[in-house]
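Hey, resending since the last one bounced:
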Amino acid sequence: MTENRIPAWYTSLRQKHSRVMDALDELGKAVRSEGPLDEKTSHLVQLAAAAAIRSEGAVHSHTRRALKAGASQDEIVHALLLLVSTIGFPAVSAALSWAHDEFADES
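The structure tokens again:
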């Protein structure tokens, strides 16, 4: 799913609750700038968390953001594979399939 194909529900949410969504965007910027991790690493950490809670939308979003921040597809796959012993193969497999959706859209 490319930036041009943001889910309709998310677009609607941004339109109806723009102040809340803008505040959420600012919070994300603030926490990423608060510490020593670079943008790419930050999105890989958030991608791992999204996979752990099985949030398909967040996996798509952080895969796109990690790619935009310079992560390679191999780095994204590795970040997800590292979770196998923690969150289990089914959750990792699902997250990998969602990440691969983004890889297909990238090419």
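The chain has one domain: 3-106.

Sorry for the duplicate.
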